[in-house]
Amino acid sequence: MLLYPKKIKYKKIRKGKMKFFDYKTNKIKFGSVGLKAIESGTISSRNIEAARQSISRKIKRNGKLWVRIFPHTPMTAKSLGARMGKGKGSFQNWSTKVKGGSMLFELCGISKNAAIKAFKTGGAKLPIKTTITYYI
């Protein structure tokens, strides 16, 4: 099940600037172990779903998994052979902008080693560098 917003105001939005570091969502709030983004970038809904599936398979559906990001930005792309100009491209996929330091996934209810293994496989599915953090 891919994530996407039910209703949006505009079909296409501007890209904007990417912030480098996030101080608001950089702490664990729900679980005991978290997967944190080291660098900033865009993550598509397919990447989020692939990481979520691999994490839930590794923990064998024990414990509780929180997905702290949601893809609410429509990304557009022009066809490969198209020349410059003639407007913005057509809709391609839903994605989210992730700042460095923001928490992506959180887990609780399972052992620390199992959570680390799950987050290593889940982090491999994402297009940005990630690290594993613990609740202190």
Summary?
By secondary structure, the protein is an alpha+beta fold.
What does this structure look like?
There is one protein chain. The chain has 136 residues and is α+β, with helices and mostly antiparallel strands. The chain is elongated. The longest helix has 14 residues, at 45-58. It has helices at residues 45-58, 112-124, and strands spanning 33-37, 41-44, 64-67, 73-77, 90-98, 103-108, 130-134. The termini are far apart. It has a domain at 33-74 and 90-134: Ribosomal protein L16/L10 (Aldehyde Oxidoreductase, domain 3, Alpha-Beta Complex), CATH 3.90.1170.10.
SSE arrangement:
Elements: E1 33-37, E2 41-44, H1 45-58, E3 64-67, E4 73-77, E5 90-98, E6 103-108, H2 112-124, E7 130-134
Antiparallel strand pairs: 1-6, 1-7, 2-5, 3-6, 4-5
Q: Which structural traits does this protein have?
A:
136 residues, alpha+beta, Aldehyde Oxidoreductase, domain 3, four-stranded antiparallel beta sheet
This entry's quaternary arrangement is: single chain
| CATH class group of one domain | Alpha Beta
Structural class: alpha+beta
Portion of residues within helices = 10-25%
